[in-house]
Design brief:
The complex is a heterodimer.
Chain A: E1 2-5, H1 11-24, E2 28-31, E3 48-51, E4 67-70, E5 86-89, E6 102-108, E7 122-127, E8 143-146, E9 162-165, E10 176-179, H2 183-195, E11 205-209, H3 240-252, E12 257-258, E13 272-274, H4 287-290, E14 295-297, E15 306-308, E16 312-314, H5 324-337, E17 341-342, H6 350-355, E18 359-363, H7 372-376, E19 380-384, E20 396-397, H8 404-410, E21 418-419, H9 430-443, E22 450-455, H10 459-468, E23 473-477, E24 486-487, H11 488-493, H12 498-511, E25 519-523, H13 529-538, E26 542-545, H14 547-552, H15 575-578, H16 583-607, E27 621-623, H17 626-632
Parallel strand pairs in A: 1-2, 2-3, 3-4, 4-5, 5-6, 6-7, 7-8, 8-9, 16-26, 17-18, 18-19, 19-22, 22-23, 23-25, 25-26
Antiparallel strand pairs in A: 9-11, 10-11, 12-24, 13-27, 14-15, 20-21
Helix pairs in contact in A: 5-16, 10-12, 13-16
Chain B: H1 8-11, H2 33-37, H3 44-53, H4 56-64, H5 70-76, H6 81-84, H7 96-107, E1 123-127, H8 131-142, E2 146-150, H9 159-162, H10 173-184, E3 188-191, H11 203-209, E4 212-215, E5 221-222, E6 235-237, H12 238-246, E7 256-260, H13 264-274, E8 281-285, H14 297-305, E9 309-311, E10 314-322, E11 325-338, E12 344-348, E13 354-358, E14 360-363, E15 367-368, H15 372-376, E16 380-381, E17 384-385, E18 399-401, H16 404-407, H17 412-430, H18 485-493, H19 509-518, H20 526-536, E19 555-557, E20 578-580, E21 584-586, E22 590-593, H21 600-613, E23 617-619, E24 629-633, E25 645-648, H22 655-662, E26 666-671, H23 676-685, E27 690-694, H24 712-724, E28 732-736, H25 742-750, E29 755-758, H26 760-765, E30 769-771, E31 774-776, H27 783-807, E32 821-823, H28 826-832
Parallel strand pairs in B: 1-2, 1-4, 2-3, 4-18, 6-14, 7-8, 7-14, 8-9, 22-23, 22-29, 23-24, 24-25, 25-26, 26-27, 27-28, 28-29
Antiparallel strand pairs in B: 5-15, 10-11, 11-12, 11-13, 16-17, 19-32, 20-21, 30-31
Classes of the chains: A alpha/beta, B alpha/beta.
């Protein structure tokens, strides 16, 4: 039995050692833990680690297989996302014990804090004492056994799984209901308690989802879009589109859902022009040889950066919203073009990992598909706070797309109208976030960049927090960013335009004297190399494209992504529809689209006489509308609208 | 899908010819790939849209606009549109050709186009009455010229009539098109049985009679294989064979027939032979592999279904007489490197000679043109009339040429393109133009809405019923039937409508199609990359031109992210219950108004819907079942004891007396911009509970929102005025005018109002339709739907307002504040006094 003294070495060094002992199959004793955070994080070997004292946040988090014993108390986030193995705590546990576990067994001999078992998917969380409020909040599966009393709102918004309470139930959460306890379930609980040598005589009340609220009761009638140009306008305020909207809502009694992003025109990169006469841009062949486009992202804190052949990434889009074939095609295209692909919310598939050379792995509030193994094989980790299409809200995936396979990879029940939580269980503010980022770094040995994805809202504040919290880079997504499903009103009216977002971000960094110290990837309606060059000239470090790539790969922009019967086989999980998609052809098409973006960026930089794309600057730009001038501070020069080059050869 | 429609011509199309009906002025218009693929630019998306709408005459107009042989093309066009169709890769191209046939079968026979009279003095002589010649004739006749068509056979139609067997193109179809053309263009004079030359009419005579001559003489003669034995009497060429059949002959045919070739003539010949008396087996021999065969997929499949055998990679090298039979000596081939046209070249395999026994060989290996008369005039270049594609002129400037005879054997639709093109240059020449704007196929759109069938994604391609040989093959019964109305509409619904605007302003058709082209351009193709870059550099139109009105649409909410704690927004954790001045409670921040003069039945249903949701009504008369009723009154005399409160419509009235009459009940006054500050002060003085801000200026009148939209300034000025008196908490503003959704209500709340009042939106939810400046209700809307519609619109608005609040991190919609908003236009920033997104500067109202 090896010993590690946390009085002598840092947690980071200790975790390295624990993993080495794990590989060697040797159990460890951890002395003087003194409630330090992140003890044992990232361990994937079935050894026993005994903590002699109290542990801090995220003890045994992001692990698979080990047995942990903690002699005293633990802080919040105990056994975060633990896949298998066990944790036994002899004292009390703080908030969100057993958060997002996917198979582990967690036993707390004392009391548990609030929101125990939040978004857990599988496994057992057992508490001998009392549980504080909202135990089982938004859980998707597994079981919570509470031998004492449960606090307020137990089972709040529970989707799947069961909560067994032996003591008093202070109150039930919304959507929760008490059911009879079947004898086989009682037997199984008793077997569990025996195994952990917990004496118990008595019985339980079983709490589950009431059976309501998992599916929308009325299906929204499907329509094909009315073009945006009849969206509003003084001549016809109560136009066809408004009427249709009212009629649909009068039928369903709730907000409407669709795919894509803000549909109406907003101030955008298209309202900016280059000052330079670009008539001959690209006319001399070989622009790619004359301009450096290679860009590294995320290395500021010593992690291995993403090495991009140009300042372009693929925006995060989930397997779930998109078919597996589409995700694989995106991965292939990213490899062919030397850029990075992003998993989005729905977890990582082996096929996608194999195809992509550089893959960013996204962690969302519901921890859908999140696990230590995929973290360790990712090239970047990203904490999703929000996205431009629906900032402030979680993702949605309609039941038609929550197939067996998708439910398995995400760890949720099949066939529900999935609404992801809008915030992380363990990130309630900026200070929690620092600890969360550290947990990721501990789990992956500080080698993988950790970024944050932000939908643009109060960007000025958010960017300062992101800077303070030590993120390696930011993915900033404006109101024009798209999604596979969100409420129409949120898509249109929540968040600020992409161009406003980058401006606020730059202003914020300048205000705290950190200009240039936090890389910003701008996204939300970037369609081509011209947009990309303008974004970079404005001050973004790189851009990401999502919808553009999907259109390049065959999407026809019918905006019915949420329905699940995508006509071209992209936004679907139905094998009959997925068959319509030719992965190899569309991977090639998307690759060519990226190459065309590359050529456009290079030709624009070259025409300015620059040898590096990053030499483009604000001095090269003018605003064509008063709005964009006011937002960006660029000079308002509407005359440039008419002096733009006309395509000619 | 064929990628070749995503070519540089689409990015950089150049100028359209003068006078062309090129209707691309619609700002969003990009021709769809099917239209680009069509040699005559048929506006397929529009006619498909019309078919779905049931507007068959409009569809007919779209079809025939550029295609004088639409009835024929509905059956036998090689339809290059279909492989270009973007749905081809998905679950099958739209049946564009058969949809055309559906329309033409319905209307083609009797429908007539308006008559084009002769208005010009000059005349044109056209030699050859095939598709190229007749298309040119129609274009020229439409331009007012008298046109004389000289045809060597006894009927018009050319290869359409002599080349296509009746099982594909029944007798009479061609007459539909020709009769339509002749009725449409009385200036076309036809001279049948008049070949070019001394036995008919000579070129000199034509030049003498007419101001221009167009030669569309076709490629009438089959090519020979030039192998040993091809002069045997049992060896015929494909076009001659089809000519005989199409002239009505049904010759007794050997049991086994071999057809050599893989094109459309080979397909027609093999299928015709199969139907001949005595014939049992037909084999088609093609020298390349199945991937290279040029025959249209449908024809090939039809032949296969008729049990015709295909032998690939086989090259005939000799035809050897063998008694009553022939031995066709062949070698095997294998596929080599691609040649100039991209198809792989067949290479003979040495020592693979073998014989195929048959009674007859049909060579369908190409066509050629012949004219000793023209040759003598020096106008021929080997087997074609020597013609300059750029001008369509022959070496004689007065003589033009087009079609197969000038450019080699091709399809009907290509011949029509040549006809249009030639007519354009002939016309330019007649008008004495030099240095003519180059011809381009015009692309028109008719701006037809997309189909609204919700199942459009799911429908599979509707195939035509295929009958094959039929009961009596030798009589050539037609092989296929067209759609019935239901299947035509289903097929039409499938169309992606690549030509129409999407619902997303960022992904306009232009942007989408440019992305499509970028994705289909090879990285090394710098010419296309260059053209695309310069197209992408063009600025978009200003979406907010000066003088634009302020609008709710141009306000956005600032979501809470890292900087604020967000409660879970999907659940009922945000309060929407709305208390007004502590005297009235509504379950929704949206109140309902406007049904005072609606039919009694509607009033009952709306009342029930409001009551179901726990909402409130604002109006002159009570609604049945509604307890929460704010009565609009002209003065204290109107007050109804059943009301929960009173709102004075007469803003000039005596507020103090009004308040006294109202007693403890809620009371307020309707305010507009008129004397706003004074009246607000008076309201405060009289201790009124609410001020109803009327953005329409017509509160209390029927449907005043139809005549006025939102009024952000009214809210701004009210709040600023109250703030300047430091009395914001002392009176409750309500807002009425242009509210369409819960989001609009949430914005009004953010701007300082307590609740919003829904008029037109509620009327529409109850099934009302806007007619002649008012709302009408009809009996076809069920009472239950009306009731539910009202309850649902209240529920949905409350839900939407709640989501907006939750996104900003609020647990009560009434906690929304101006700081939660930003504007996206300057007009709105000024009107609402809300900074532009990305800034925090207030733009003051313009003086």
């Amino acid at each position: 039995m090896a010993q590690i003294d946390l009085g002598a070495i840092s947690v980071t060094e200790a975790n390295k050692l624990i993993r080495q002992y794990g590989e060697a199959g040797e159990d460890v004793d951890i002395l003087n833990p003194d409630a330090r955070h992140h003890i044992g994080v990232g361990l994937t070997h079935p050894i026993t680690a005994r903590v002699h004292g109290s542990a801090g946040y995220f003890c045994a988090g992001l692990t698979d297989g080990p047995k942990f014993v903690i002699e005293n108390n633990v802080g919040w986030g105990l056994a975060d996302n633990m896949l298998s193995g066990s944790v036994v705590v002899h004292g009390n546990a703080g908030a969100i014990a057993g958060v997002a576990i996917r198979g582990a067994e967690v036993v707390v001999h004392g009391n548990m804090g609030s929101r125990a078992g939040q978004v857990m998917k599988e496994g057992t969380l057992c508490c001998r004492g009392n549980a504080n409020f909202m135990a089982g909040y938004m859980m998707y599966g597994g079981r919570i056994i509470i031998l004492g009393d449960s606090g307020d709102k137990v089972g709040e918004d529970v989707t799947g799984g069961s909560i067994y309470v032996a003591g008093k139930i202070q109150s039930l959460g919304s959507d929760a209901k008490v059911f009879d306890l079947p004898s086989d379930e009682l037997d199984s609980i008793m077997e569990f308690l025996d195994r952990y040598e917990i004496p118990f005589k008595g019985t339980f009340q079983k709490i589950q989802n009431s059976g309501k609220g998992l599916r929308y009761s009325k299906i929204e009638p499907r329509v094909r879009n009315i073009p945006f140009y009849t969206f509003s306008g003084e001549s016809d305020y109560w136009n066809q589109k408004v009427q249709e909207d009212i009629h649909v809502k009068a039928q369903i009694g709730r907000y409407r859902i669709r795919g894509y992003g803000a549909a109406r025109p907003l101030p955008h990169l298209g309202d900016i022009a280059f000052r330079k006469d670009l008539t001959s841009a690209g006319s001399d062949s070989g622009v790619l040889d004359r301009v450096n486009l290679a860009t590294e992202v995320g290395g500021k804190n010593g992690a291995d950066p993403l090495k991009l052949s140009m300042p372009l990434l693929i925006a995060p889009m989930s397997y779930g919203a998109l078919s597996k074939s589409t995700k694989v095609a995106l991965a292939t295209a990213s490899r062919l073009s030397g850029i990075a692909e992003n998993t989005g919310e729905g977890g990582m598939s082996d096929e996608q990992r194999e195809e992509a050379d550089q893959l960013v792995y996204q962690c969302l509030s519901g921890r859908l598909g999140w696990n230590i193994h995929d973290m360790q094989r990712a090239n970047g980790l990203e904490i999703y706070i929000s996205q431009g299409a629906k900032p402030g809200l979680g993702g949605q995936l309609m039941a038609k797309k929550v197939t067996k396979e998708i439910a398995r990879i995400r760890g949720i029940p099949e066939g529900i109208d999935l609404r992801s939580p809008s915030r992380h269980p363990d990130v309630l503010g900026a200070d929690d976030l620092v600890i969360k980022v550290e947990e990721f770094r501990e789990a992956t040995g500080y080698t993988i960049p950790v970024s944050v994805k932000l939908g643009a809202g109060r960007v000025r504040d958010d960017i300062k927090i992101a800077m303070k919290d030590g993120f390696d880079y930011v993915q900033l997504d404006g109101l024009q960013g798209s999604t596979g499903a969100a409420g129409n009103e949120v898509l249109e009216y929540v968040g600020i335009p992409t161009i406003s977002a980058i401006q606020e971000a730059l202003d914020a960094l300048a205000e705290i004297d950190c200009s240039g110290q936090l890389q910003i990837i701008l996204m939300g309606g970037v369609k081509d190399g011209v947009d990309a060059a303008k974004a970079i000239a404005l001050g973004a470090d790189a851009v990401a494209v999502g919808t553009g790539a999907i259109i390049a790969g065959g999407c026809i922009a019918c905006m019915q992504c949420h329905v699940g019967t995508c006509v071209v086989g992209i936004a679907t999980q139905d094998p009959e529809h997925e068959k319509r998609y030719n992965t190899a052809v569309e991977a090639r098409n998307m690759h060519r689209y990226f190459e065309s973006i590359r050529w456009q960026m290079a030709a624009i930089a070259d025409a300015h006489g620059y040898t590096d794309i990053q030499q483009l600057g604000r001095g090269d730009l003018v605003a064509l509308t008063p709005e964009v001038a006011e937002i960006t501070g660029l000079p308002y020069e509407p005359g440039y609208r008419n002096t733009q080059p006309v395509a000619a050869e | 899908m064929t990628d070749n429609v995503y070519n540089i011509d689409r990015i950089d199309p150049g100028a359209a010819p003068e006078g062309s009906k090129d209707d691309v002025a619609l700002p969003h218009y990009v021709p769809a790939p099917c239209q680009v693929a069509c040699p005559v630019g048929t506006d397929a998306p529009s006619y498909i849209g019309y078919i779905w709408e049931g507007k068959i005459e409009e569809a007919y107009e779209a079809i025939t606009a550029t295609n004088p042989f639409s009835s024929i093309c509905g059956r036998v066009c090689d339809a290059p549109c279909e492989p270009a169709c973007r749905r081809a890769d998905s679950d099958g191209a739209i049946g564009i050709r058969n949809l055309k046939r559906y329309v033409m079968d319905k209307l083609g026979k009797d429908f007539r186009l308006p008559v084009s009279e002769v208005t010009q003095k000059q005349t044109v002589g056209i030699v050859g009455g095939g598709p190229a010649g007749l298309t040119a004739a129609q274009d020229l006749a439409e331009a007012g010229y008298e046109v004389h068509v000289y045809e060597m056979t006894d009927r018009l139609g050319g290869m359409m009539i002599w080349g296509i067997p009746a099982f594909r193109l029944p007798v009479g179809i061609i007459d539909e098109d020709i009769e339509r053309m002749m009725a449409h263009c009385p200036g076309i004079k036809v001279h049948l049985n008049t070949p070019l030359g001394d036995e008919g009419v000579t070129l000199d005579e034509l030049k003498e009679r007419h101001d221009a001559v167009l030669l569309t003489i076709g490629a009438w003669w089959g090519k020979s294989m030039k192998v040993e034995g091809d002069d045997n009497e049992r060896v015929v060429d494909g076009v001659s064979y089809l000519r005989r059949i199409n002239n009505g002959e049904r010759p007794k045919t050997p049991e086994v027939v071999t057809v050599i070739g893989g094109g459309d003539v080979a397909m027609d010949a093999c299928r015709a032979a199969k139907r001949m008396p005595g014939c049992k087996d037909v084999k088609v021999i093609y020298r390349r592999s199945p991937e290279e065969i040029p025959a249209r997929k449908d024809e090939l499949e039809g032949a296969l279904k008729e049990n015709i055998e295909f032998i690939y990679n086989e090259q005939p090298v000799a035809m050897i007489p063998d008694g009553d039979n022939l031995k066709l000596r062949c070698v095997r081939t294998e596929m080599g490197e691609p040649d100039e046209d991209g198809r792989r070249r067949p290479i003979n395999v040495e020592g693979s000679e073998h014989d195929i026994d048959c009674g007859m060989v049909i060579m369908a290996v190409g066509q050629q043109s012949e004219s000793t008369h023209l040759e003598a005039k020096g106008l021929m270049d080997r087997d074609r009339v020597k013609t300059d594609w750029e001008t369509m002129q022959t070496s004689d400037p007065k003589v033009f040429a087009a079609g197969d005879g000038a450019f080699g054997g091709s399809t009907i639709v290509m011949a029509m393109q040549h006809g249009h093109r030639a007519a354009y240059y002939v016309k330019a020449s007649l008008q004495g133009h030099e240095n003519v704007v180059p011809y381009r196929t015009p692309f028109r759109t008719r701006d037809v809405p997309v189909s609204q069938d919700p199942e459009w994604e799911l429908f599979h391609r509707e195939e035509q019923a295929f009958h094959g040989l039929g009961d009596d093959p030798v009589s050539f019964p037609e092989i296929e039937t067209t759609y019935d109305e239901l299947s035509a509409r289903k097929e039409a619904a499938r169309c992606y409508r690549c030509d129409v605007e999407t619902g997303a302003s960022d992904y306009t058709v232009h942007n989408r199609e440019d992305i499509f082209v970028m994705a289909r351009t090879a990285p090394e193709d710098e010419r296309t990359q260059f053209a695309m870059l310069h197209k992408r550099l063009l600025p978009r139109d200003n979406p907010y031109p000066e003088g634009g009105k302020p609008s709710f649409d141009d306000l956005v909410f600032l979501p809470a992210n890292l900087s604020r704690l967000v409660i879970d927004p999907y659940r009922d954790a945000c309060n929407v219950t709305t208390q007004i001045a502590g005297k009235l409670t509504s379950a929704s921040p949206g109140l309902i108004t406007g049904f005072d003069d609606a039919p009694d039945e509607v009033r009952e249903d709306v009342g029930a819907g409001i009551a179901d949701h726990g909402g409130a009504y604002v109006g002159r008369r009570p609604l049945p079942g509604v307890e929460n009723w704010l009565q609009l009154v002209d003065g204290p005399g109107d007050m109804n004891a059943a009301a929960s409160g009173y709102i004075l419509l007469d803003a000039k009235g005596d507020y103090v007396a009004f308040k006294a009459a109202a007693g403890d009940k809620l009371c307020g006054v309707v305010l507009t911009h008129d004397d706003l500050a004074d009246r607000l002060a008076k309201s405060l003085e009289a201790e009124l509970d609410v001020v109803l801000l009327d953005g329409t200026g017509g509160a209390g009148e029927a449907w005043s929102e139809l005549h006025a939209n939102c009024d952000l300034e009214l809210m701004r000025d009210t709040i600023q005025c109250l703030r300047s008196m430091n009395r914001e908490e002392d009176v409750t503003p309500l807002y009425f005018g242009g509210l369409r959704s819960g989001t609009d209500i949430a914005k009004a709340i953010s701007l300082g109002c307590r609740a919003g009042i829904l008029g037109i939106a509620a009327a529409m939810a109850a099934g009302g339709t806007v007619e002649n400046g008012a709302i009408s209700f009809y009996s076809d809307y069920s009472r239950e739907d009306r009731r539910e519609g009202i309850a649902n619109i209240l529920k949905a608005s409350a839900g939407e307002a709640s989501i907006m609040a939750r996104c900003t991190g609020k647990t009560d919609v009434h906690n929304l504040e101006p700081e939660d908003l930003r504007s996206v236009t300057i007009a709105t920033a000024r009107a609402a006094r809300i900074p532009l997104a990305g800034t925090h500067r207030f733009l003051e109202a313009a003086e």
